[in-house]
Amino acid sequence: MKSKYDEDLKKACEVLNNAQLDELLKIAVEAMDDAAIDIGMEANQEWHAKITLESALIHIAEKLPKYTRLTIPKKVAEELDELIEIAHASNEIHVWSDNFDYYKFINNAISEEDDLYKYMYPKDQLIGTLHRNTIIRYLIDNDLVEVVDE
For labelling alongside 79, which of 14, 40, 55, 141 has CA 20 to 30 A away? Predict the structure, then answer.
């Protein structure tokens, strides 16, 4: 069973992974200055240094605002999941396959009438690029993309 401290530390790491670097650096400098003062006061206790640095990480994460994640419509995500299952069942995708292999399979499997096609290839090319990159992120780990009703 994880302690509240371990859960907070995990949450802090997740927030930090999604943070913008310039803002993170500014907050990190402030938090590390505080940590350095604490460590200097009790440098003879190695465990105290570790706890202080981990606390600083949590402190940094608490100061960062919540960032929005990329989103994908539910019907598109469902279509993607279905195509991935078909790809695995057909042995066209393997454990060594990369995202390009998935992408190629998906492109070959969809038609212009599909919601997924319309999502990937809208009239605005920049939006299409964003949507295709969102799909790649979804393929890497669907927790990286928020599925929304539309």
Answer: 14
CA distance 88 to 110: 16
Helix, strand and coil in the chain, % to nearest 5: 70, 5, 25
Cross-strand bridge partners of residue 147:
72
17-29 pLDDT tens trace: 666 655 665 666 6
* pTM for the whole structure: 0.54
Helical axes 4-17 vs 46-63, angle rounded to 10°: 50
Q: Considering only CA atoms, which of 111, 110, 105, 118 is closest in space to residue 150?
A: 118
- Maximum pairwise Cα distance, the chain: 68
Q: Cα(75)–Cα(81) distance, rounded to whole angstroms? A: 10
Token digits of residue 137: 């992120």
